[in-house]
Amino acid sequence: MGFLMSKSMEQNFKKQQEFMLLNSRLQLERQILMQNQMRERQMAMQIAWSREFLKYYSTFFGLAAFGLTAGALKRRKPGLLVPIVPLGFVLAYQTDMAYGTLTQRMKMEAEDVMVAEHERLELPHGTPTFETIEKARRAQSTFFIEK
């Protein structure tokens, strides 16, 4: 009788382990999906911000270019056109960010860094482990208890 009960408990224990493994896998998949959705939303907000900023900046650039050109022609000083060059670079960058391929190029460059220059991504003292986090937590809780 004890043998049958032991066998039954062992089967229940294995089923419980499988259930816990499946449950933790589902939880991890959900966390990965949620983090990816949050990343996508943040990138969408960044692109939307760039497009909104571009509207205001292009208006400023147009007015500045018109004013500087009119001033250069009226005063016959071509040096007044010089500020258009750096302002034009900023406009080109913002246009590329808002409607161009800047984000794709940044993604490709990041992938290249991850493959070819992985050592540049390493954290000081390496990746945190459970032991290092637990050690810091214990030290902090001891600190608060002593006060």
Automatic annotation (TrEMBL):
Any single biological process term in GO: positive regulation of plasminogen activation
Q: What's one Pfam family the UniProt record gives for this protein?
A: DUF2368
> Which residue ranges run through the membrane?
53-73, 79-99
Q: Could you tell me the keywords of this UniProt record?
A: Membrane, Transmembrane, Transmembrane helix
- Cellular component GO terms, alphabetically? plasma membrane
Query: Does the keyword Membrane feature in the UniProt annotation?
Result: yes
Q: Which InterPro entries does its entry note?
A: Plg-R(KT) (IPR019319)
Task: Name the PANTHER family for this protein.
Answer: PLASMINOGEN RECEPTOR (KT)
Name used for this protein in its record: Plasminogen receptor, C-terminal lysine transmembrane protein
- Source organism per entry reads Scleropages formosus (Asian bonytongue)
The opening ranks of the lineage are: Eukaryota, Metazoa, Chordata, Craniata, Vertebrata
